[in-house]
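Let us practice reading a record.
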Amino acid sequence: MMQDKEQQFERLFHSEYGRMYRAAHILLGNEEEAKDAVQDVFASLWDRSVILHEESQRTFLLTCVRNRCLNIIAQRQRQQANEVQLALANLSDDTETWLGQSDEELTAMVQQYIDQRLTPQTGRVIRMHYDDEQSYKEISGKLGISLSAVNKHIVQGLRKLRQQFNNREA
């Protein structure tokens, strides 16, 4: 009986793995994360001893992979949002060490750096998020780019700002 279950599971794995992996790779854009997502789904199925009906197994498995990928994306976004907050806090802390510079002077320096040294798209995204207080979703909709692209621009822009202004300490 146990061997029969293992054989069924192995057949299911071999027949659906490629399709599930492609779906996960499209959603995540990362080969290793896609493999991990598919493995997580199969591990969960094995642990729970779920019985799948032949006619609905493909749909069920793709739904499980999609949900796992969405969880990974949400986790990624939370982690990156935490990094952005930390970067902003560090930038704020560093400004206290710049002797003789007023907030206005520092703001002007940051604005100038954004205008001259960041790509136009990264500068636009940074301004929309921090100056105009727009959410990632609002920026994504207005610029016609994905949420992950918005996040990428903010993380890269803040990293460059942090590098530039950490090197300017008095």
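A brief commentary: The CA atoms of residues 129 and 138 lie 9 Å apart.
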